[in-house]
Amino acid sequence: MTHKILEAKDIGWIHINSVNEEDLEYLKQNFRFHHLDYDDIRAGTSLSKIDTYKHYLFFTFHIPVLRKEEKIVAGNELYIFLNEKHIITLTRDPIVSIENLYEHMEKVNKFRTNVLSKGPAFMLYRILMDAFRETQSIISFLTREVSRLEEAINHSHDKKITVDLGKARRNILFLRHLIDPQRTIISNLSVSKRQFIAEDLNVYFDDLRDSLDSVWSSSDNLKLFVDGLFDVNEALLSHKTNDVITLLTIISASIMVPTFIAGFYGMNVPWLPFAHRPEVVSFVFLFSLSVMLVTVLLIVKKHRS
User: Topology of 3-238 in CATH?
Assistant: First the structure.
């Protein structure tokens, strides 16, 4: 089993950082939680939610994390049972901020007593506040990435920029997908009338909601920014395509005269001018070809300047 227990003032925090069947069996034997909650933990869910019962609350959160190697925003599942005497946290993979909080409380008795003595609902606030704090660094990363892409678009218009823009848009939209339902959950908590959620804790949950609202507003601005960069990039790519088509048209037009001469004299017709003087025909062909090539080069040079 991977569960760990901290206790103070008759309040306990049970933390399971790599949940498995043995851990769920332990909860079944010691707590009267609904079997559907265990089904949710086993199956996993892509949406954050809160399930309310008579004697406890069950939460599903998704904590945003940045996979630095892939530069991808993902969500780590965090399941929480909350009742009058206990808060139970379960994760499939360890969440660094929660692990650090647990270790700190485990080592510092005064800090552990101070936090747990305020009740499991306050402990919930502390866990969520630490868990979502990393989201601010994700916003900072996305802001830097968008600024980099803006500068890159001004200097070049290659395929990689379009791919990076798509990845940035995906990260921003996914972050918004994670944050939005969790704002609603926290709002519901701040107005909850549960016996084990004291009214004086509303200000703490309001503070947490403000933090998530800040992330939401920042991600909304970044979304608008990236949408604008997409439009600019598409416009620049369209201009580049038009330039290529224009150049091909010029080249096609420039070889029309040499092609006409070659095709005309390629017919086996004896009455054509200079038909029996190949050196003259060759000279006219090469002269017209040279004139056309010089014309194309001048047009291209003028266009690039």
Answer: Beta Polymerase; domain 2 (3.30.460)
